[in-house]
Amino acid sequence: MILEVQPYMRLGQFKIGAGKQEISQQLDGDTQDAIDEASQDAYPHLGLTFDYDEEGRCVTISASVPAAAMYEGLNLLATPFAAIKERYPNYTRMGNNAVLLIDLGIGLTFGNPENLDRQLPKQVSIYARAIIEEQIRDLESWYRMSC
């Protein structure tokens, strides 16, 4: 499944803000190994995960192989981080093995926290704008307190 990344908005045909039912209908019954929980649905055979808020609206969409997450002609899941950060240099580490491309609102998760430059992302995530804005406020607050 090839999914075009539109930060803060959609990953392929799946939209941030959509309800669980709408996303389920878009999958058209392709739920062979689906994991359905109140706050998250996962479809490992498609490489898709959806996180929901307390009202059941989608706030995060993540893709992993076998999906392809395309942004500006680049498959983020098949590109080493060194090439990604060369093209999109404004990023920050989030935890041990994740990176947030700040200007884009795209998250990348890696398998190993060591030497990210040589690794391909294991997962690409897009978020509702409010989540990213909160993350950035938290980072700015942490930075001001640490100086």
Write structural notes for this entry.
The mean pLDDT is 85. The protein has helices spanning 20-26, 81-87, 129-146; strands spanning 2-6, 10-11, 14-15, 35-36, 40-43, 48-52, 58-63, 68-71, 74-75, 91-94, 98-101, 106-109, 123-127. By secondary structure, the chain is an alpha+beta fold. The protein starts with a strand and ends with a helix. The radius of gyration is 15 Å and the shape is globular. The protein has an eight-stranded antiparallel beta sheet. A hairpin with a 3-residue loop joins strand 10 and strand 11.
Number of helices, where a helix is a run of at least 4 consecutive DSSP H or I residues = 3
Main-sheet strand order equals: 4-5-6-7-13-12-11-10
Radius of gyration: 15 Å
The global form is globular
Strand fraction equals 25-35%
- The residue-averaged pLDDT reads 85
Comma- or semicolon-separated keywords:
alpha+beta, five-stranded mixed β-sheet, 3 helices, 33% strand
Task: Draw up the topology in text.
Layout: E1 2-6, E2 10-11, E3 14-15, H1 20-26, E4 35-36, E5 40-43, E6 48-52, E7 58-63, E8 68-71, E9 74-75, H2 81-87, E10 91-94, E11 98-101, E12 106-109, E13 123-127, H3 129-146
Parallel strand pairs: 1-8
Antiparallel strand pairs: 1-2, 2-3, 4-5, 5-6, 6-7, 7-13, 8-9, 10-11, 11-12, 12-13
Summarize the structure.
This protein is an alpha+beta fold and 147 residues long. The protein contains three helices and 13 strands. It has helices at residues 20-26, 81-87, 129-146; strands spanning 2-6, 10-11, 14-15, 35-36, 40-43, 48-52, 58-63, 68-71, 74-75, 91-94, 98-101, 106-109, 123-127.
